[in-house]
Amino acid sequence: MNRSSQLAIAVPAYFAPGNGWNRLAGRGGAAALAVVNPNSGPGAAVEPAYAQAIRRAQAHGVRVFGYVHTSYGARPQAAVLAEAEGYRDWYAVDGIFFDEARSDRAGQPYYAALRRALKARDSALLIALNPGTRPDERYMDVAEVVVTFEGDFASYLREPTPPAWMQRLAPSRFWQIVYGVPDAAALQQVLASAGEGHAGYIYITDGTLPNPYGALPSYWTEERRAVAATPSLAWPHP
After folding, report:
1. What CATH number does the domain containing 51 carry?
2. For residue 166, is it within any domain?
3. Which terminus has fewer CB within 10 Å in the chain: N or C?
4. What single string gives the DSSP state of each residue in 59-82?
């Protein structure tokens, strides 16, 4: 089976409630997952517009995760967990997206401890982890899904074959984020390569640094249609 046929869209939705959130949660199963990020975290208090956007997305079947940065394992765990609890209490998110994650074996215990603490508070919360590269295999014990690529279009096309340990796991455990993809033709190149990268979740955008995620891509309709035409993924339960 061609693994690219198993793709679903997962959006780092780092933009305010409004048209972008309405479109990612639109009819036809636009996105399977979205990451909410009010203020590089949940902010100081609940924002009603975000709460409404999250509820609407969830009602359309989108799993919404709250953004929390970990400063590559340097941030105090108490601060990380406090933000995770803010998302849970204020926005009833489905999970937490830990950004700026380490990928080496030495950093794994920090994230394993976060998982234990978070699950002790709320066992239903899911975890996504973003090292932005293929991590040590032990990180798969930490998160339900891991971002194994975050980078630009040219770098994505140079990605090597996934290691054997990745290929033994379901594609639904892996997410790739590709920015600076210039047009719909290049979008199709990424989609064709996603199966080779053993990805189950994908986000492709023509946005560029310093913030590729401030809006949906100009070809969002084409991206949605291309991925919506393939079977949806069930959320992984390793």
Report:
1. 3.20.20.80
2. yes
3. N
4. HTT-EEEEEEE-GGGTS-HHHHHH
CB-based burial of residue 101 (10 Å sphere; 0-12 exposed, 13-18 middle, 19+ buried)?
buried
* Contact criterion met (CB below 8 Å) for 27 and 17: no
Q: 7 φ, ψ to 5°?
A: -75, 150
Q: How many domains does the structure of the chain reveal?
A: 1
Q: Is residue 24 part of a domain?
A: yes
Question: Pairing relation of β-strands 145-152 and 63-69?
Answer: unpaired
Residue 110 lies in a domain: yes
In angstroms, the Cα distances linking 154 to 3, 10, 75 are 21, 21, 31
Question: Domain range spanning residue 106?
Answer: 3-228
Q: Which of 196, 150, 149, 200 is nearest to 172 (CA)?
A: 200
- pLDDT by residue for the chain (238 residues), tens digit each? 233 347 899 999 999 999 999 999 976 558 999 999 999 999 999 999 999 999 999 999 999 999 999 999 999 999 999 999 999 999 999 999 999 999 999 999 999 999 999 999 999 999 999 999 999 999 999 999 999 999 999 999 999 999 999 999 999 999 999 999 999 999 989 988 887 888 999 999 999 999 999 999 999 999 998 886 655 454 553 3
**Nearest partner of 222 among 59, 33, 58, 23, judged by Cα:** 23
